[in-house]
């Protein structure tokens, strides 16, 4: 332990480890809160189950060979529409349910970000191995002095930590939203926003 | 009476034999990852592809940061390598029909953004800590 402190003191950007450590702990706390308020409740479990069932049913109906008779096609389309609207309704209910409980998690994240901001405002916490584009630079160089665009602020590092750690933690714990839910997946699957 | 008893015994033995064969024939989870004949659920395949992307992102980030590799071009290269590995896995090793899983786009985007952020995080951290 005594040798570890001088070892870390020799690194110029040890603040980055502090940011990552706090992000990781925050992610654990947020998922614990989400589990208590959302995931262990019977309402969530039944909604998730109904979404999974509806998604599977929809996939089966869509991949079945279309019948040649017009009346059968119409009835099949009606059935698909019914399943789709049921799926949308369940997804909406799930989102609403999570939104109410997610306010607590949002508060925790807000407080932690405020704390980190006060600790590392104006400090360069890491060095970027690339020159970011203008849009990214607004976040990565936030609150920093000078023109070196490779200086990294706490906000950008915290954003990277939040997305990567929370998404994978949710996936690992099985708390990711079901793929059939509206807005699930997509090109940029963020950590479940309703628990933010 | 004796015939019915022996018939029942034969039936029981046959069932035990079938169960025994089933245990030997069902692949382990690890074997399933490389078995082109295994059947895949959409969620199962999506999860596997997600975690493959995360591992590739972490390894690339650690490697890029250690060498170090500098420049935005390495982000593009990471995306290409990562997507290539995922495509090679599901198309050539598993040989799945991508149409059954929502097409190439659906499979290739599994875990993409999370792996990109994980890659950037690892790359930035190792680069900052190891070279300054």
What's the SSE pattern of chain A?
HHHHEHEH
> Using only CA atoms, what is the Rg of chain A?
23 Å
**Proportion of strand residues of chain B:** under 5%
- Shape verdict of chain A: elongated
Residue ranges of chain A: pLDDT <50 for 5 or more in a row? 182-189
What are the segments of chain B in which pLDDT stays under 50 over at least 5 consecutive residues? 15-25
Helix content bin of chain B? over 70%
Secondary-structure element sequence of chain B?
Answer: HHHHHH
Count of separate DSSP helical elements of chain B: 6
Mean pLDDT of chain A: 82
The chain pair forming the largest interface, with residue counts per chain, is:
A-B, 33 and 36 residues
* Structural class assignment of chain A: mainly alpha
Main sheet attributes: strand count, strand direction, barrel closure of chain B = none
Biased composition (Low complexity) (chain B): 9-22
Membrane topology (chain B): Multi-pass membrane protein
Transmembrane segments (chain B): 73-90, 111-130
Region (Disordered) (chain B): 1-22
Task: Report on this structure.
The complex is a heterodimer of chains A (196) and B (132). With 196 residues, chain A is an all-alpha fold. Chain A contains six helices and two strands, in the order H-H-H-H-E-H-E-H. Chain A has a two-stranded antiparallel ribbon with strand order 1-2. The longest helix of chain A has 51 residues, at 70-120. Chain A is elongated. With 132 residues, chain B is mainly α. Chain B has helices at 2-25, 29-32, 42-66, 73-93, 103-108, 112-131. The longest helix of chain B is centred in the middle third of the chain and has 25 residues, at 42-66. Residues 15-25 of chain B have low confidence and may be disordered. Chain A binds chain B through residues 11-14, 16-17, 20, 59, 63, 126-133, 152, 157, 160-161, 163-164, 167-168, 171, 179, 185-190, and chain B through 42-43, 46-47, 50-51, 54, 64-65, 68-72, 74-75, 100, 106, 109-114, 117-118, 120-121, 123-125, 127-129, 131-132. Chain B: The chain crosses the membrane at residues 73-90, 111-130. Chain B: One of its GO terms (biological process) is mitochondrial respirasome assembly. Chain B: InterPro entries: EMC6-like (IPR029008), RCAF1 (IPR010742). Chain B: It comes from Arabidopsis arenosa. Chain B: It is a multi-pass membrane protein. Chain A: Keywords: Calcium, Calcium channel, Calcium transport, Coiled coil, Endoplasmic reticulum, Ion channel, Ion transport, Membrane, Transmembrane, Transmembrane helix, Transport.
